[in-house]
Design goal:
The chain has a single domain, classed as 2-Layer Sandwich (Chloramphenicol Acetyltransferase), CATH 3.30.559. With about 290 residues, the protein is an alpha+beta fold. The strands form 2 sheets. Strands 3, 6, 7, 8, 9, 10 and 11 form a 7-stranded mixed β-sheet that branches. A 4-stranded antiparallel β-sheet has the order 1-2-5-4. The chain is globular. The chain is built from 8 helices and 11 strands.
Length: about 290
């Protein structure tokens, strides 16, 4: 309220075009931009093999998230969100991830949602360790999962669901929702990511939720073969398709272009993520 929320701070001194866009497009699904990014698989596979031989364990999902965290550390406008037609800088780098709790049981697949808070100077090893730790906790059959537990309790009173959600929307609009809901809500995050390849599906363009304030959704699909032009001529390469959905209102197109170019550069040379960035560029102080 009055420009402040538990999860962010309102930005007033920014591009006036960016400021006015939420009034023209009031919902996230009004403002969806859709693009498929094709990432060259070979440099990533080579890097993962080298790390494995050296005794380190790195996954593609870890690289993807680590690259996103590094992008936000250098281009903080990627961590903005829109609420009540206002542009906010998010206080933390939060990534929501869907995982299978019982992947071995093909007849009864149970999903869990993880919401992870990353430090802006995190390295690939720190990101990998955090993902492994929190994924293990979330997939443990006896573990507590705040999101699942809250939803389980809520649906026991189905007649109240519509009123609870309506109240949550109203309170969230003005930044007055209880902090524990912000903490467990996967819809209040910097980026939501899902691995469609893990269930044999191609990439897709996932919608941005109008509830919450997620500004980016990445959907990793099954690997594909593509013919690409190289200096040596046409060459068939394995690529990783990533369906990207973003809220175009958070910044200008030039900012998105710079950020995505940097993102792809990091994935072409993941060794850049082994060390901390020289500096952190922020629009607001990160709270960890």
């Amino acid at each position: 309220m009055f420009g402040r929320r538990p999860d962010g701070r309102r930005l007033d001194d920014i591009d006036p075009i960016v400021t006015v866009m939420p009034y023209i497009m009031p919902t996230r699904n009004d403002a969806c931009n859709l693009v498929t990014e094709y990432v060259d698989y070979e440099p990533i596979a080579d890097y993962i093999r080298r790390r494995s031989k050296a005794g380190g364990k790195v996954s593609f999902m870890g690289l993807l998230i680590a690259a996103y965290v590094r992008v936000v550390s250098q281009y903080p406008e990627m961590n903005r969100f829109i609420s009540n037609r206002q542009v906010f800088a998010r206080n933390q780098i939060l990534v929501s991830l869907t995982v299978l709790r019982n992947a071995k049981n093909k007849e009864n697949l149970d999903e869990a949602l993880i919401k992870m808070n990353f430090k802006p100077d995190a390295t690939i090893d720190e990101v990998t360790e955090q993902i492994e730790r929190e994924t293990k906790e979330a997939t443990d059959a006896d573990a507590d999962n705040g999101t699942v537990d809250f939803a389980t309790k809520l649906v026991k009173f189905r007649l109240l669901v519509i009123w609870v959600v309506a109240l949550a929307r109203f309170l969230d609009r003005y930044g007055l929702m209880p902090s524990f809901i912000y903490k467990v809500s996967p819809f209040h995050c910097s980026m939501f990511i899902t691995n469609m390849a893990s269930i044999g599906m191609p990439s897709l363009y996932h919608h941005l939720y109008n509830f919450g304030n997620t500004s980016a959704f990445l959907a990793l699909g099954k690997f594909e073969k593509q013919v690409m032009l190289t200096r040596e001529g046409p060459k068939t390469k394995t690529v990783i398709p990533i369906g990207v959905t973003t809220d175009e209102r958070i910044c200008g197109g030039a900012s998105y272009a710079r950020a995505f170019a940097y993102f792809k550069n990091l994935l072409l040379d993941p060794s850049q993520l082994e060390k901390r960035p020289d500096k952190i560029v922020t629009e607001t102080a990160y709270k960890n």
